[in-house]
Design a protein that fits this description.
This protein has 141 residues and is mainly alpha-helical. The chain is 43% helix and 6% strand. It has helices spanning 36-51, 61-75, 100-110, 117-135, and strands at residues 78-81, 84-87. The chain has a two-stranded antiparallel ribbon with strand order 1-2. Helix 1 packs across helix 2 and helix 3 (100-110) packs antiparallel against helix 4.
């Protein structure tokens, strides 16, 4: 969906705001409109929400800052999937993937401490997915 096109010439002091998106749809699906201004605000809203929840207060301001940044890093890696929200390891290669040991051992036990409900909900979806596949896997080993 191209909303505005053309050639734009900028002079000293001029600005041009633009956005771009890439989306894929199945043949029977209609393209969904994307509100670029709203999408631009979402990361800032998440940071603001997380910064006000469950702060770590130690005598060391560096440790406090590391904890604050860790809340943002892990929370921005939750993606909506067909099976519900899932935490993905990211790195531009593994979106919406489950690395069972990462989620089970490292991140899911951390999520309840940061006060982000979407992350805790993701934990329950992860456990249900894992249980389904474990219980339905072949027992021939």
């Amino acid at each position: 969906m191209l909303h505005t096109s053309g050639t734009f010439y900028l002079h000293t002091g001029d600005t041009l705001d633009f956005s771009t998106s890439i989306a894929g749809y199945k043949p029977h699906e209609q393209p969904q409109p994307i509100d670029a201004a709203q999408e631009t605000l979402r990361p800032s809203e998440l940071v603001e929400q997380l910064s006000g929840q469950s702060p770590l207060e130690t005598p060391d301001p560096i440790v406090n800052a590391m904890f604050a940044f860790s809340k943002i890093r892990v929370s921005e890696s939750i993606y909506e999937t067909a099976g519900g929200p899932m935490h993905g390891p990211g790195d531009e290669s593994f979106y919406a993937a489950i690395w069972a040991n990462d989620q089970a051992e490292y991140i899911n036990p951390y999520f309840p401490f940061i006060g982000y409900d979407e992350a805790v909900y993701q934990c329950t979806k992860y456990v249900r997915h894992t249980a389904f596949f474990v219980l339905n896997s072949s027992n021939s080993r």
